[in-house]
Amino acid sequence: MLPKTSPLPVPAPKLPVKTLLRSLLLLAACLGLAACQKSEAPAAGGKLTIGVAFETLQTEYWVAGFEAIRADLKQRGYTMLEAVSDGDTNRQLEQVKTFITRKVDGIILVPKDAKTCLPIIKAANAAGIPIVLFNRPADKSDAKSVAIVADNFALTRETVAYLVAEAKKSGKKHKAAILIGDLGDINAIGRRDGFDAAIKGHESVIEVVARIPTEWNQEKAQAGLVNALQANPDISFIFTSSDFLFPSIISALKSAGKYHKIGAPGHVILGGFDGDATAYQLLKDGYLDATGVQDVFFEARQSIQAVLDLRAGKPVAELILDPGFVIHRGNLTEKSAQMWGAQPAKK
Amino acid sequence: MSASAPARSWRTTAARALDSDYFVLWLCVLYIAAVAPFTPGFLSLDNAANVLATLLPLFVVALGQTLVLIAGGIDLSVTSIIGLCSITGALVMNGETGWLAHSPLAIPAAIAFMLAVGGLVGAFNGIAITRLRMPPYIVTLAAMMAFGGLAVWLTQSKAINQLPAAFNALGGRTAFAFVIAGAAGLAVHVMLGRSLFGRWLYAIGHNARTAHVSGVPVTGVVIAAYVCSGVLAALAAILYTGQAETGSPVLGQRILLDVIGATVIGGTSLFGGKGKVLWTLFGVLFLKLVDNSLNLLNLSIFTLTIVKGAVILLAALLDSLRTRLAGGHA
Q1: Yes or no, beta carbons of A8 and B199 under 8 Å apart
Q2: Which chain B residues have a beta carbon less than 8 Å from that of A119?
Q3: Between A113 and A313, whose confidence is greater?
């Protein structure tokens, strides 16, 4: 039982309910003042305003996508409103609502994952604003959106098929490791399944001994690969679901004394996905065998076109696939102009 | 004497202004007046609704932080509590694989589980801090990592949707969220201002040893403060999960700076013994106004982060100044 009076010398703060109510009235007055004014008028004439909300700009791929959209919109004479939510779903919802407040003509969104974006899409639907998902599709639902996405499964299968063909040339059986992305991301699942499909039927050449979950995190990728290389020192075939993990892979290979150029004894067959600047440099230097390149410029162009088509009431497919391409030493000169990662590296 | 009188008067005025319950509210009004002419859409009904909707869950988490800061502690684990509670509720009630899928008990049971998990993590923090005499920031930082990792492990990093529409409405509909956040705010206000527990909390924050000598059950009160913080983080998880219509292990992972920043901007002292619900409300409002206006101004994430960091640093500086002025004044 608590005593009725405190023995303490500390005065308790006294904030009467009346004061609280007065304060809340003041606050309401502030918000009411805000509410009295009308929203901004929609963009007039042909100059459109497009809101571009990305979940992150932490990897080169997303920065390249963001810049490709910005450049394309600028070329068309449109205004771009930008927002990056830094991995926070609720913040992204808030940012999209801000776009809606500013009466944008269309929204291009990179969501955190396929599920948490559904309320965001619904908010845009309710406001009658077309919304296009860049590189990450949403789960099936009654929320209406269009997604432009790389054909992760097919492109990975094609890339890994090239790596398997290279492995066959060595005439020996290879132990393989795959670095898997965040399985909440449908792109990561597509790449994992593409890898499995390419390996299937080639068990006499490739034996998968390590499946490393990275959750798209470089530290986890490095720790996972170091552990895998300790458990299986004879791993000689590595595929990463994203090129941005190459620095971690190189570090782990160097520590294990297994980082050698193509053709050198002990070379670990390396493959990736994305086509970033690191992958381009590794291809040029002869360490990387192949990577599946997402055509960022195609995806940016298609995203904007989809917004325009939706605004015009034209029929647009719910899923637009970027076929991408596999790049390797054999076609590097020919294809590098289309590889987004080669652009900054060339400057 | 004549030379020191104006200086003393200035100090008194400054101390009074800084100590005013409405200091941050007036800052909000000034900020709105200063920024509105340059910020398209800032003064619109839609935007006011957007600010209010995003303010409410942050206010609820910040309430718990206020309690803990008043007691001289800090709770860095609130973000992982939000993620853990989010997936706990979703595991119970989701329509696909939920333990109580489609049951009329699904929503109340999920809410009860969420609040219980929040309370348990809070109790763990409180017990580790008081019984093991470990520093609060280390205990709660470790809890943030451990329970955040547990949430990711439980779901294998996957988000869970198909939550009942009635549950989603709790966070998704601003009116419901307003009632929940308002009730939580009122409860904490009464707890702090009208109960013995509140007096004990301030006393411990001022000087835990003196409070102990005066007969305050320091251990129990500190544990209770962390339990309250955990339960309020769980309540915020209900609102955030409802807004996102999805249970996610990483929900709220990035809001720690906002929670502590808003509480400190409001005037709750990082040194303990000082803080009010109203201050926290105004702190959250100010932070959200800054956030919202910078978004509307189409500033990049880098600029936005730098400005917010500067605002929070300024608030911490003001806190330090306020403490010094109050000390000098006394």
Answers
A1: yes
A2: 172, 243-246
A3: A313
pLDDT in tens, B196-246: 999 999 999 999 999 999 999 999 999 999 999 999 999 999 999 999 999
Residue B315 · residue B290 · CB < 8 Å: no
Q: Which tokens in the block code for residue A148? A: 């432009």
User: Which candidate in B245, B286, B302 is best for mutational testing of the A interface (most A CBs within 10 A)?
Assistant: B245
Which residue shows structure tokens 């956030």?
Answer: B291
Question: Which residue shows structure tokens 């492990």?
Answer: B153
- Does the pTM exceed 0.90? no
- pLDDT of A43 strictly over 70: no
Q: How far is A46 from chain B (nearest CA, A)?
A: 20
Q: How many residues does chain B have?
A: 330
Residues 6+ apart with CB under 8 A from B267: B23, B24, B274, B275, B276, B279, B283, B319, B322
The share of chain A scoring above pLDDT 70, in percent, equals: 85
Interstrand relation of A146-150 and A319-322 (parallel, antiparallel or unpaired)? parallel
Q: How confident is the model at residue A13 (pLDDT cuts 50, 70, 90)?
A: very low
Which tokens sit at B212? 């102990």
Q: How far is CA B136 from CA A330, B65, B80, B133, B289, in A?
A: 58, 12, 16, 9, 30
Mean pLDDT of A33-42: 44
Q: How far apart, in whole angstroms, are the C-alpha atoms of residue A93 and residue A88?
A: 9
For the CA atoms of B123, B128, B131, B133, the dihedral, rounded to the nearest 10 degrees, stands at -140
Q: Hey, what are A15's tokens?
A: 């904030």
What are the Cα distances from residue B247, in Å, to A230, B55, B153, B170? 36, 20, 14, 14
The count of C-alpha atoms lying within 13 angstroms of the C-alpha of A167, restricted to the half-sphere facing its C-beta, is 29
Instruction: Say yes or no for a CB contact (<8 Å) between B295 and A34.
Output: no
Cα–Cα distance, A241 to A189 (Å, whole number): 9
Q: How far is CA B109 from CA A345, B73, B93, B103, B228, in A?
A: 56, 31, 8, 10, 20
Q: Are B294 and B42 in contact (CB under 8 A)?
A: no
Q: What are phi and psi of B273, to 5 degrees?
A: 80, 0
Angle value at C-alpha A163, between A162 and A168, nearest 5 degrees:
100
For residue B128, give Cα distances in angstroms to A124, B223, B228. 46, 9, 15
Q: Residue B52 has which token pair?
A: 């209010």
Buried b / exposed e across A258-280, counting CB within 10 Å, b at 16+?
bbeebeeeebbbbbbbbbbbbbb
CB-CB under 8 Å, B32 with A30: yes
Identify the three-state secondary structure at position A290: strand
Q: What is the residue type of A346?
A: K
Q: Is residue A70 within 8 angstroms of chain B, CB to CB?
A: no
Q: For residue B3, give how far its alpha carbon lies from the nearest alpha carbon of chain A (Å).
A: 33
CB B310 within 8 A of CB B294: no
Distance of alpha carbon B37 from alpha carbon B26, whole angstroms: 18
Q: To the nearest 10°, the Cα dihedral for B10, B16, B18, B22?
A: -140
Residue B110's identity, in one-letter code, is A
pLDDT digits (tens, 9 = 90+) for A284-309: 999 999 999 999 999 999 999 999 99
- What's at A112, amino acid-wise? K
CA distances to B50, B179, B288, B327 from B175, in Å: 12, 6, 18, 42
Per-residue model confidence as pLDDT tens digits over B117-172: 999 999 999 999 999 999 999 999 999 999 998 998 898 777 898 999 999 999 99
Q: Which residue is associated with the tokens 């004879």?
A: A234
- Does A56 touch chain B if contact means CB atoms closer than 8 Å? no
